[in-house]
Specification:
heterodimer; A: mainly alpha; B: mainly alpha; Rna Polymerase Sigma Factor, Chain: A; Arc Repressor Mutant, subunit A
Chain lengths: 82, 167
């Protein structure tokens, strides 16, 4: 085999099909998901600070209270005397 | 009924808030805002998935909105990073949830959000991109960078721990 042909074969490049990189990247990312810590974080529980419920309750009742509006009474025009 | 729901789900949802927030004050704000939304939207729950999953989605969205308002979620410059899957991330498996959460909280808001959404909540990069208004590429590079930073933090955490033990 001529050295020129050998070089051609050695240096031959073909663009990989579209989407291959995405699959490789996804697999690399998914290696993270094989750990246990994501599950630990997903299931974690922390007691909320004591005053939060009162604030939520207050905020809900604020929105449920209808806003009082003063009814404006339109002035009545004097009826023309017959 | 509302208070009962709060008592039942607040420990889990507060943990979600702490993971997305940088500090307890922000987490408390998100917790409050999230539950108000849950109670207002309760009628729209269609029983198609789990109730906890539905609540969790509301909290994740609330956290995203919270940071968007504060302009924390500006997309970072795309940066190529080597995807390192080193020994340090495996160490996270042995740490208590509290310690892992403290480390995740130290990530900057952008990295932290993508990391939480992809690794813990299980959203795809496409979903993350749509929800955060960034490109899929940015979501991928943020995750990749978050992993690198987290590894460095775990290494520091271990070194500090060893240092404290040897004293």
């Amino acid at each position: 085999m001529s050295s020129e042909l050998k070089n051609k074969i050695l240096n031959h490049q073909v663009t990989p099909p579209a989407g291959v990189w995405d699959k490789i990247a996804a697999e690399l990312d998914d290696s993270l998901l094989q750990h246990q810590f994501p599950g630990k974080l997903y299931d974690a529980e922390v007691t909320a600070p004591s005053g939060v419920w009162n604030k939520i309750e207050a905020s809900l009742s604020d929105e449920q209270t209808p806003i009082e509006t003063k009814r404006r009474i339109a002035p009545t025009a004097p009826t023309p005397s017959a | 009924m509302q208070e009962e729901l709060y008592r039942r789900f607040s420990p889990r949802m507060y943990a979600v808030c702490l993971r997305y927030a940088g500090n307890t004050e922000e987490a408390e704000d998100i917790l409050q805002e999230g539950f108000v939304k849950v109670f207002k939207k309760l009628d729209s729950f269609r029983s198609e998935g789990s109730f906890e999953g539905w609540i969790r989605r509301i909290f994740v969205n609330t956290a995203i909105e919270h940071f968007r308002r504060k302009r924390y979620l500006m997309p970072v410059t795309e940066k190529e990073e080597n995807t390192i899957e080193g020994k340090y991330l495996s160490i996270l498996d042995d740490l208590a949830a509290r310690d892992i959460m403290a480390l995740v909280q130290e990530l900057s808001p952008g990295y932290r959000t993508v990391f939480n959404m992809y690794v813990v909540e299980g959203y795809t990069h496409k979903e993350i991109a749509d929800m955060l208004g960034i490109s899929e590429g940015t979501s991928k590079s943020q995750l990749s960078r978050a992993k690198v930073i987290l590894q460095e933090m775990v290494k520091k955490f271990i070194d500090q721990h060893r240092g404290a033990q040897s004293k």
